[in-house]
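Record type: monomer structure entry
Structure origin: computed from sequence
Chain ID: A
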Amino acid sequence: MTHLVNEGDASRGSIAKTIYALRLLCVFFIALGSWHPTLAQMANVRVALVQSASDAPFFIAEKKGYFANEGIKITFSVLRDVIAPLGTGQLDVGATSTSAGLFNAVERGINVKIVADKGSTPPGYGYQPILVRKDLIDSGKVKSFADFKGLKVAAFNNGSASMSTLNDALARGGLKLSDTNIVFMPFPQHVLALSNGAVDASITTEPSATEAIKRGVAVRLMSDDVIYPNHQLAVVMYGGDFIRDQPETAKKFMRAYIRGVRYYNDALKDGRLAGPNAADVIAILTESTSIKDPEIFKTITPNGVNPNGEANLVSLRKDLAFYKAQGLVTGKVTIEQAVDNSFVDAAIKELGPYTPRIK
């Protein structure tokens, strides 16, 4: 006997099976999209920052979920000196300024590596300018760096990279560091020192530089992106234990960090935080740093940071030579001992070259 199937029943059965299959697919894709590592599965990475605007890529990568997407949980701390805890394994990642002390630590065998750019001065992004008191400019006493002989100049400390900038600036006027009277003090104190006449000039980072100019106590004589273009002022460092014991996590961390760097670069335009991502980046910075006024971030000159991550070896070599010439580094340490670009190279191989958003 031939079994006859009603065409309507067959059609309804086919539709039901299709709907069931589509539901299964929806459940699968929802589960796939919402999956993320549990806290127990995530690798904890200990990161020390100075909580400044140049820490932006770290804050962005945390807030945008780039670290979490790599299975990384970040523990942030605020430290000024990260070298020792990185070398002893108390920290995994540190954000710090380049300095003579960093190279001396490497010379002593402290196991730390520079692994990426954190703050530099590409053209238009001179965030550590040289200021002169406005009354000295108005009177004509100071017209150029040739007039700095005998002036009292505020700087951060003797072993900092900013001293290399100041050295180059004075050379433009035919002078040396020893031709001036250099006074070392924290950057925020520079504004007061310029205001009360305690110093005549300063090499000052943001936001102190903009604050001094807004108050009318100082004039920007020249920015460091002109004096020393692409100067490597701040870096990301890995501890040796982190590199040795968690190489895959170190690669994942760098991948997330570079994504944060690129998001930050998409906030830059014409020497300001004025690009497509600016509003979001400023909101992240006001939440994550001690500067709570968004208008400050809109007016300061932000730092640059290489969207492809690599620290500037040419700049680092130049500064190391400067420290050695000044007697601040006396060993035979080389840049190759201090730098490891392999993590940036691995990240760029996966992420591809930077393509900026249209501005």
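Annotation 1: The CA atoms of residues 81 and 96 lie 8 Å apart.
Annotation 2: Confidence is low (pLDDT under 50) at residues 1-11, 25-35.
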